[in-house]
Predict the structure.
Amino acid sequence: MDDAPRFLLDDAPPPDGKTYRPAPVDRRGERVGWLLSLALAGGLLLLQRFSGGIAWLGLVFLALLVALAALVSIGNWLEAGTSIRIDAQAIEERTPLRSVRLGWGEVDEMWTWPASRGWRILLRGTGGQILFRTGERMSFPRGAELRLGFPEGEQMAGVVRRAARLSAPLRQDDGWVCRRTAN
């Protein structure tokens, strides 16, 4: 992988106020986690009722299951509430926890690293940082599919490079960087 990502070389004009959203999250894992937690809690209650005691290991396992289900739920909530808006003046990322707006003149550099089947993109500027992944698809047996990141992430990165007037990508460490040019 010595060649720069092709999407960083394309000259795409900034859209007139387009909002991008990550791929929809499959919530089956979250449901399974909560159902397993409920089933184990019910089993422990029955065990308590009929045998008079509960093994501490069962409570530890229940606590772990509830914690994992809660973490998956929080991750899904964050992902569902995330958006990136690009217009003629700036790029803005909104999540349920924060909002970052970088005007094109504030974007100092864009880093790009390979990430499994896509790319991680980091924008650094005087007003903060924006990190996103390009779209990825993973297929599993029996037709199951996992989609991650922003399906139009590569296009977004090309638009940012052009609108912020960043340099052509330069190889650095394990990725590529585009920096603010003098013009």
User: Anything to note?
Assistant: The chain is about 35% helix and 30% strand. The mean pLDDT is 87. Residues 106 and 126 are 6 Å apart (CA to CA).
